[in-house]
């Protein structure tokens, strides 16, 4: 299982390939994952936002987990499974199941929709963490509609079993507040802020856009670790235009389109209500790839 020290570097959230009838496409999954695994990444994330967690059934996540294990073969690469929902009991049940499958950690999103109190949110994370599988807390207010204060986030990070945070809070203030005092790793989950967050002391990133240009993301992390910030800035300048396009329309629609264009997926199909990207964005993506 993953510990705090392991939660650093580049973790790549996987997309979930579908055929044109919106059924899981495991052949594409294997081809796409095999290609990603040519890179020396530190882990993969199943059933994150990029994996279309709102429309993927939990049984299907089990199928994807098995397929990923088969594709990894003997390679020991951490697998983090998104097990967080807005129901505490369901999140606990999923975390237990992910533990049985052999997940190295789970990703638990701030509970959305119900608008729980601060105490309720901390209790939600406490119960998930008490399962005994390491928990990475995932703060993404643009999707959950709930923005946690640094004080709240500290309370969650103080819980036993919570090993770190994926910060997709949309700005730098949460990381800037937490990082100077936080003994647990914080990973950037806001792709366009990666370089800034690394310079503040983030331990790495969990980034949908690292599904493409993966080698450049890994170089960037090495350059920052080695203190070569001017080179890192040059690398990031090259990464930023594709990052911006990949988030111009809702992630993971542009990413899936690009992976299909690269021949890694048979189709760019998303599950309804998500749908294809615009013709205009397709043209822009072609122009920079
Ligand atoms: O799948 C994820 O996990 C990620 N989700 C974020 C989002 O789409 O909101 C972006 C991040 O790069 C990874």
Automatic annotation (TrEMBL):
This protein's pathway: Amino-acid biosynthesis; L-lysine biosynthesis via DAP pathway; (S)-tetrahydrodipicolinate from L-aspartate: step 3/4
Site (Part of a proton relay during catalysis): 49, 113
E.C. numbers: 4.3.3.7
GO MF annotations, alphabetized: 4-hydroxy-tetrahydrodipicolinate synthase activity
PROSITE patterns, A to Z: DHDPS_1 (PS00665)
Pfam family membership, one: DHDPS
Gene Ontology biological process: diaminopimelate biosynthetic process; lysine biosynthetic process via diaminopimelate
Keyword line: Amino-acid biosynthesis, Cytoplasm, Diaminopimelate biosynthesis, Lyase, Lysine biosynthesis, Schiff base
Catalytic activity: L-aspartate 4-semialdehyde + pyruvate = (2S,4S)-4-hydroxy-2,3,4,5-tetrahydrodipicolinate + H2O + H(+)
GO cellular component terms given for this protein: cytoplasm
Catalytic machinery residues: 138 (proton donor/acceptor), 166 (schiff-base intermediate with substrate)
Subunit annotation: Homotetramer; dimer of dimers.
General function of this protein: Catalyzes the condensation of (S)-aspartate-beta-semialdehyde [(S)-ASA] and pyruvate to 4-hydroxy-tetrahydrodipicolinate (HTPA).
Family (UniProt): Belongs to the DapA family.
PANTHER family: 4-HYDROXY-2-OXOGLUTARATE ALDOLASE, MITOCHONDRIAL, DIHYDRODIPICOLINATE SYNTHASE
UniProt name for this protein: 4-hydroxy-tetrahydrodipicolinate synthase
Classification of source organism: Bacteria, Bacillati, Bacillota, Bacilli, Bacillales
Gene: dapA
